[in-house]
Amino acid sequence: IMWTSLRKTLLISQTGLNASVVFFGFVYWSQSGEILLGTSLVVATFGGFMDGIYAVSLYTAGAAACSENTGMIISTIDLMWGIGHMLGSVSGGALVKLWAYPLPFFVLGSIGLVVIPLIATRKKIPGEEKKTKCEGPMLEESQSQHASYYRLLLNPAFAVDIGSMMLSWVIMAFNEPTLQPYLATQFKMDSTQVGVVFMVQYASYTIGSLSSAILCSLKMETFFGFFGHVLTIIAYLILGPAPFISCEPTLWMVYLAQVFIGVGTAAQFACHYSHALKVAGKRGYPDTIRTISFVSSVVFSSLMTVAIATSPVAGYLAETFGYRNGSMALLGVILIWLPATFLQWIQSLCAEKRRRRLYVLERPTSSSRELGYI
Description:
One of its GO terms (molecular function) is transmembrane transporter activity. With 374 residues, the chain is an all-alpha fold.
């Protein structure tokens, strides 16, 4: 973004991402299994790379355009992500039944490519003007004070935010490859019924994103981030259920757990993302594209790294120890991280009380005005 511009980065990444989606459709006609595997790996690598750049650019543009309430815009983008997953689950299956495997990739990729000219011809990209907000002496002073943005990684509050967002993606990456075979074997569900279970999760994710937007606007992001963390703990206690709970697996527990996972992970992501940007501002980093894009790049590089690593580990745990026992490893990680989010919430409450106390002490009293002291 800093080498080119926000507009060019959005255009390049969106073009590459949607082109890779279209190419995935052509993989269907591969002549052999080796060609299919090799081509899929190349296209997936390229598409994942472009997806990461696109996500950073999109969230940077949104946060820069609405810096007064970043939680609202981040939650809104996240809400669209959840709705997209729901629609994709339904429309993808319908398009495959309409013709064949490549059709969803051709349709969705083409729709994404059609939108690109609208971005290219748009006179103004939201947040683009912030690139020149600090120039001249102000920029030199800012760069001298903050020569390395990587110092922000050493800030405990920022680290808690990044860790909490990483955990939200770990939970989703663990849930998807392990729950499907468990439902198929335990409850004899077919693919359509399993799809409904995951639709409940994504529907709940949209509700969690909407709730995050409201609570972030009320400056309660640390509370809702902690609350979302607690919901994920409850989810993995009842999803299996946990081996130490003397209860047989039931479908209502599975559905309720998906609700908690959806709302909880949405709260973890949106609220801690918003708080991470606030931490950067409180540490003195300027409110510019450079700062926002750095935070966004740290967020998504961390998320994609843990998502890639989690899926094979999750599959190994579920196959080796069974779903109920294997999911306890994830529950243990969530429990270990719980004190960090709790302390962050308490610290924010104390900071808010100190701010209000200082405001009351510094505010001129009516008696002082009457006596002519002020």
